[in-house]
Specification:
alpha+beta, 60s Ribosomal Protein L30, Chain: A, 2 domains, 5-stranded mixed beta sheet, 8 helices, elongated
């Protein structure tokens, strides 16, 4: 080795590696997890305080996110946002079965089964809520819905709000004379129909779906042979057909009692 080589100093550079060189981004991952968890918590809290139609819409999306199953028979599902589907005439029997299935979930279904009659007629799906001797869906002689009435009408609003067909609501009484300070069967029948309309709208039925709200008093008896029969006191909800032009088919004039195909 030459003297020149021996004179040249050997320089060793030592670099200190900080701990952040390897783990500096770990806090970002933890923070992202925390923010995600908080977002999920706020969404759950929002859903818990939302009304029933909103909760059902969110649940329906997770059940059928592509909309391939549709919302109701004959519908287009969430694949056609902004517009509820219309149930075609050929699917009204399936609509009837859907409503019956939802009614069967009620705690008092066994007691109410004989008071809810559904039939597919020439004007659409007819749902009749028949009163008992001591009142079933409304307090006796009053337009105030009972607890059972609230539950049944809530289901009607929830389910019919998922479609775009027009709805008619009718109130009927029996032939027993009723007059309380000028408040007669005419006012009672109209007020009960309107009360049913309000409950259904509060639970999902669209404002634009209401075609008519009518009170008939005792002029359209379900049991003409027994004009004082409690079954004549009823609220009828009619889901109208959609015509070929996309508009609701005209309902024919009612003549006597409607036929009942459900027992």
């Amino acid at each position: 080795m030459s003297e020149k080589d021996q004179a040249a100093p050997i320089i060793i550079i030592k670099r200190k590696r900080g701990h952040g060189g390897h783990h500096g981004g770990a806090w970002k991952v933890a923070y992202a997890d925390f923010v995600t968890a908080m977002m999920a918590l706020f969404i759950v809290l929002w859903l818990m305080n939302s009304n029933k139609p909103v909760r059902d819409a969110v649940a329906g999306y997770f059940t059928d996110p592509t909309g391939s199953k549709g919302i109701m028979p004959g519908g287009t599902g969430v694949g056609n946002p902004g517009k509820a589907p219309e149930v075609a005439k050929e699917n009204f029997e399936q609509l009837k079965m859907t409503l019956e299935k939802n009614f069967s979930k009620l705690p008092e279904f066994v007691k109410l089964r004989d008071h809810v009659k559904m039939s597919v007629t020439s004007e659409g799906l007819r749902v009749e809520l028949l009163e008992g001797e001591k009142g079933t869906f409304f307090e006796s002689g009053s337009a105030t819905p009972s607890r059972d009435g609230q539950e049944v009408m809530s289901i009607m609003g929830e389910q019919l709000g998922k479609i775009n067909n027009l709805i008619m609501v009718e109130g009927h009484t029996d032939s027993k004379p009723f007059n309380r300070g000028g408040y007669s069967n005419w006012e009672l029948s109209a007020d009960r129909a309107n009360a049913a309309r309000k409950i259904m709208q509060e639970n999902g039925l669209g404002v634009s779906q209401i075609a008519q709200v009518r009170g008939f008093a005792d002029q359209q008896l379900r049991d003409p042979a027994n004009p004082e029969n409690a079954a004549n006191r009823r609220v009828t909800i009619i889901v109208k057909y959609i015509g070929k032009d996309g508009k609701a088919a005209d309902a024919p004039e009612l003549k006597g009692a409607a036929s009942d195909t459900s027992k």
